[in-house]
TrEMBL record:
UniProt cross-references to NCBIfam families, sorted A to Z: hemK_fam (TIGR00536), RF_mod_PrmC (TIGR03534)
Lineage of the species this protein comes from: Bacteria, Bacillati, Actinomycetota, Actinomycetes, Micrococcales
Segments forming domain Methyltransferase small: 122-198
One GO MF term: peptide chain release factor N(5)-glutamine methyltransferase activity
HAMAP family given in the database record: RF_methyltr_PrmC (MF_02126)
Protein name in UniProt: Release factor glutamine methyltransferase
C-alpha cells in the first residue's frame, strides 16, 4: 500500500495516497472516505478538509493508521465513531448495526404518522422494535414534538450504544425481546416502527463491512426466508397498537410481497401498503390495525 504519509506535512499528497490505497482495497467511495477520515482527525467537515488541502496544510497524525484499517474494510463509522442519520449524528461502533440511508425513509413514514396523531390528539405514543443504535427512535423523538417514544432492544452491546443516542431526546429504552416486550402496555401505542433483522440464512452479505462487522443478530431474520423476526414484529405490533394504530416495517426488496402477505394472512390489518426508498426499491410495508 502506498504510504499515506509519503509527503510529510502535505495534506493534499496524503489524501491522494489515501484515495489510491482505498480504491485498491475496493472501498466504494475512496476519496470521500479519505477526506472523512482526515476530517475526523482534524475535527472539521469534508469541505474544510478540501480547503485545507488546497491551502497546503499539514496532514493529521494517525491518518495512515486509519486508512490502513479502512483498507481492511473496517466500517468508516467504526473508525470515526459516528454515523449520520437524517438530522442526527449517532454514536456507533462494534456490536451495533450501522444505520443505513435507506432506513431514513422508514423513519419518515413513522414521523409522518406520529405528526398526524399529534395534530389530532395532542400526543402520540410510538415504539421502535429492535432499535439498534436508536436511529429511528431518536429521529421520531427529535422531529415530532408531542411524541412519547419507547425503544426496545435485546442486545447488550447495541443497547449500550442506543442509550447514548437516545438519552438526549428523552426516549425510554426498554431492554428485552421484541417478541414479548411491553406486555403491560398492550393496546396503548399509536405507531409501531421496526427495522428488524430480515436477511435469509443463506444470503450472506457480500460487503465485508456488513458481513464481518455488523452483528449477526441484527442481520439474519431467522429461517430460510428470513421472515421469522418480521413475523414476530407483526404479532407484537398487533398486540401493542390501539385500533387504527399504524405499523411500518422495513424489509428487503425481494420480501415486499412476503411481508404484505404476512399482514394479509394475519387478518388484523387494513390499508396494507408498500413503500419504495429513494432508489426505487421496495423497502417497507405498512398497515393499519383493525
Amino acid at each position: 500500500m502506498t504510504s499515506v504519509n509519503s509527503a510529510p506535512g502535505d495534506l493534499a499528497a496524503a489524501l491522494r495516497a489515501a484515495t489510491a490505497a482505498l480504491a485498491g482495497a475496493g472501498v466504494p467511495s475512496p476519496r470521500a472516505d479519505a477526506e472523512l477520515l482526515a476530517g475526523h482527525l482534524l475535527g472539521v467537515g469534508r469541505g474544510r478538509v478540501a480547503a485545507l488541502a488546497l491551502a497546503g496544510a499539514d496532514a493529521p497524525e494517525g491518518l495512515a493508521d486509519l486508512v490502513a484499517e479502512r483498507c481492511r474494510r473496517v466500517p468508516l463509522q467504526h473508525l470515526t465513531g459516528t454515523a449520520h442519520f437524517r438530522r442526527l449524528e449517532l454514536a456507533v461502533g462494534p456490536g451495533v448495526f450501522v444505520p443505513r440511508p435507506e432506513t431514513e425513509g422508514v423513519a419518515q413514514l413513522a414521523i409522518d404518522r406520529a405528526r398526524s396523531v399529534v395534530a389530532d390528539r395532542g400526543r402520540a405514543r410510538v415504539v421502535d422494535l429492535g432499535t439498534g443504535s436508536g436511529a429511528i427512535a431518536a429521529s421520531v423523538a427529535s422531529e415530532v414534538p408531542g411524541a412519547a417514544v419507547v425503544a426496545v432492544e435485546l442486545s447488550d452491546l447495541a443497547a449500550a450504544w442506543a442509550e447514548r443516542n437516545l438519552a438526549p431526546h428523552g426516549v425510554e429504552l426498554v431492554r428485552g425481546d421484541l417478541r414479548t416486550a411491553l406486555g403491560d402496555r398492550d393496546g396503548t401505542f399509536d405507531v409501531v416502527v421496526s427495522n428488524p433483522p430480515y436477511i435469509p440464512a443463506g444470503a450472506v452479505p457480500q460487503d465485508p463491512e456488513v458481513r464481518d462487522h455488523d452483528p449477526h443478530v441484527a442481520l439474519y431474520g431467522g429461517g430460510a426466508d428470513g421472515m421469522e423476526v418480521p413475523g414476530a414484529v407483526e404479532r407484537t405490533a398487533a398486540r401493542l397498537l390501539v385500533p387504527g394504530g399504524y405499523l411500518v416495517m422495513e424489509h428487503a426488496e425481494v420480501q415486499a410481497e412476503a411481508v404484505a402477505g404476512l399482514l394479509r394472512a394475519a387478518g388484523r390489518w387494513d390499508r396494507i401498503e408498500g413503500h419504495r426508498d429513494l432508489t426505487g426499491r421496495d423497502r417497507a410495508t405498512s398497515g393499519i390495525r383493525r
